[in-house]
């Protein structure tokens, strides 16, 4: 009897001990499930969130560049159709970079309609007369453009577990700045104005070639149309000239109309050749300037010749006066008097918003690199040069008064021979480098640049 009771008692104790363990086992399973879900959520946030932010930044950069390019085209007189075409073309080029591969596969830019605000499935391009408020209109002459890319889906890694659909968008507004009161990024060269009238391009004719710098054997006086090196921001000597001509600009440098700037005496042939020829990708070293990119377009035609007097060899009539073409330009010829076929800015591929060709025109040497490229950059053969007053100035160290800046196109590679190291450039227009825009909206300098504006519809713009 006692044994039976003892057995019954132990059985009851065992049952009492088992039940709490069973309840604890269920609680641990719930806690484990919650913890595992939390870990997955954190992993999803880190992996998918980082992936989203990375591609958002890449998309914003591409849209910013396209907006700036379209605004520049508008500033140069492009129609709304041409500005949309330019923006879309640059966007396509940037999306071809390897790091933008996922964006490229997700953004549909096929069959673009440049007459419509919705250019493609994901791309919208609008125009306005003012940056703020940005009021979309379809009026030719509008100076401000907004580019939007919407609903760009991205690959999900763990986000689908949380029912989170990853997609990004980006928008950017760009257009003319207020007038510039401080110019920088000017090449340290100056050209003597033919006259002091800015509305007359200081006497220069667009499309005319000039000797931007004479060779070592020429000793021409400094007068209208002549070029000389400058000491910008106090820089002097071959090393400074070499890097500055290659494109190493001092961001804090200011060149304003009316400034007094010292000239750099001497020819400094080696540094000039090495610095400028980086733009063709043919520099022969010197001064550790290998980091400067070449131009996509390095095409060249017949070389423009310079005579012993330091003048370009041009066609002359029976009276010995220069013959002018239909546009009023002199006509360069070779030593036998035959008209030469030099490479002009009109043939230069980046002058068009369309994708450039992949080879030089027939009869021209050099090459054109396909975009994108890690060793080339657009527009390297175009740069601004200071225009100044040179009345009474002679060779050597002088001080000139600035009038403005003119944009020139580097026609040909600079020869390595000192007595033939002439720098030949085609005048394009009176222009500016980049610079500091005035904070006063009423300030007038006749010079502006293209800048990005904040888009209220996009906090990341």
TrEMBL record:
Origin superkingdom: Bacteria
Record-annotated membrane-spanning stretches: 25-47
Alphabetical UniProt keywords: Membrane, Transmembrane, Transmembrane helix
A UniProt-annotated Pfam family: Tad
Domain Putative Flp pilus-assembly TadG-like N-terminal: 26-72
Protein name in the entry: Putative Flp pilus-assembly TadG-like N-terminal domain-containing protein
